[in-house]
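Consortium newsletter contribution from the modelling node. Members have asked for a concrete example of what our holo predictions look like. Here is one, prepared for the S-adenosylmethionine complex that several groups have been discussing at recent meetings.
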Amino acid sequence: MDNLKMSKEEWNEVENTLFEMVPDYDKINKKITFGMDEKWRGAAALESEGTCTALEVGSGPGTLAVKLMSEKVICLDPIPEMHAAFRQKIKENFLPEDKFEFLTGSCESIPLPDNYVDIVYCAFSFRDFYDKEKGLCEIYRVLKNKGKLIILDIAKPGKIRNKLIYFYIKRIAPLLVWKSREHIHYLAETYKAFASPRYYAKTVEDAGFKKIVIKFLSFGLAFMLVARK
Ligand SMILES: C[S@@+](CC[C@H](N)C(=O)[O-])C[C@H]1O[C@@H](n2cnc3c(N)ncnc32)[C@H](O)[C@@H]1O
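And here is the predicted structure:
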């Protein structure tokens, strides 16, 4: 696992871990971030105001998708059980079923035509792509001209804080979600292999995006990268 790529075996391990987390995914996130994850998603969701079609890549159980203000939200995830969990959430919360569309697949090969969506979200999923450069090229392809890309994830704000965040994920967070402590290890590993937001701003630029802005959230614990096609 490095800054840009994962082997198929590493990615399968990450996906198996995420698959096992499906029933408790939201609870785990809330506990280990003390509820801050919801605020971060709320801030990112504001970018969707006034847009027609959003694509969320790595939509998981719809934790961000429910907040998006686009008329249509396409949810792409390689794990069908994530979609099933989101469908259940839609039913339980009486959300408009026809607002959401589900695609099973990965970012490295998006099953959509060119210039199709107005905004693309990668919320806590960019870290898990097995080929980030290929994923960004695909996102660029499916975005309409002047469309927006939003990447939301845990930040690497600087050497000391990176070490503290890693220590927290590796040693403290598992104590807060004891039943799922094994799953948190994957999170620590993907965080370790993750680079800084500035590093990924360059990768995003190399994929053809412009007007790249990085916003740090909660004193640098998370970041939101906004870019335009
Ligand atoms: C940590 S969850 C994030 C879920 C949701 N976006 C959120 O805000 O909580 C990461 C999701 O990305 C998906 N994922 C992993 N690799 C992917 C890839 N290569 N392409 C698309 N999605 C991927 C996983 O299956 C998982 O559902």
